[in-house]
């Protein structure tokens, strides 16, 4: 693999104990079940790229965005209750960002197209809820509260007809942000 290819990929190292102690597992792609490599994970170091980490296997449960840096005790830093159980590398995206958000499930109700970050859909579009979306270009993070706060969900290009069917029942998404190249 060339040096250029390495720069295009992400690399994250997980450690069993806080402060980068104990056994480690190096990951450069998606991993659906960390239990195969580590019995627990309490710290990690992102050497390049961006990752979403999940507190359940198979990319389920609460999601957390991690960019390049050291997370010596991420559970207390991020308010996580459980260890990381799976992770997904976020590919670098160059080009435009486009996403359509819908007020109701199955692309119903009011629709708006975004090409940039939106810190509050209520203020910008007078939408009280966003229950489905279609990501045409780029990778996005959606947040349950305005101003990019609260629990989040990672979205890559595709159709998302129902957040409830994805395990986000009762959650409302009120802000969304593009995952930009600056995280690499």
From TrEMBL:
SUPFAM superfamilies named in the record: gamma-Crystallin-like (SSF49695)
Residues of the Beta/gamma crystallin 'Greek key' domain: 10-48, 49-91, 138-175
GO BP terms: lens development in camera-type eye; visual perception
Pfam families: Crystall (PF00030)
Keyword Repeat: yes
InterPro entries: Beta/Gamma-Crystallin, Beta/gamma_crystallin, G_crystallin-like
UniProt-recorded Gene Ontology molecular function terms: structural constituent of eye lens
Keywords per UniProt: Eye lens protein, Repeat
Family membership noted in the UniProt record: Belongs to the beta/gamma-crystallin family.
Task performed by this protein: Crystallins are the dominant structural components of the vertebrate eye lens.
Name this polypeptide is given: Beta/gamma crystallin 'Greek key' domain-containing protein
Species the sequence originates in: Dicentrarchus labrax
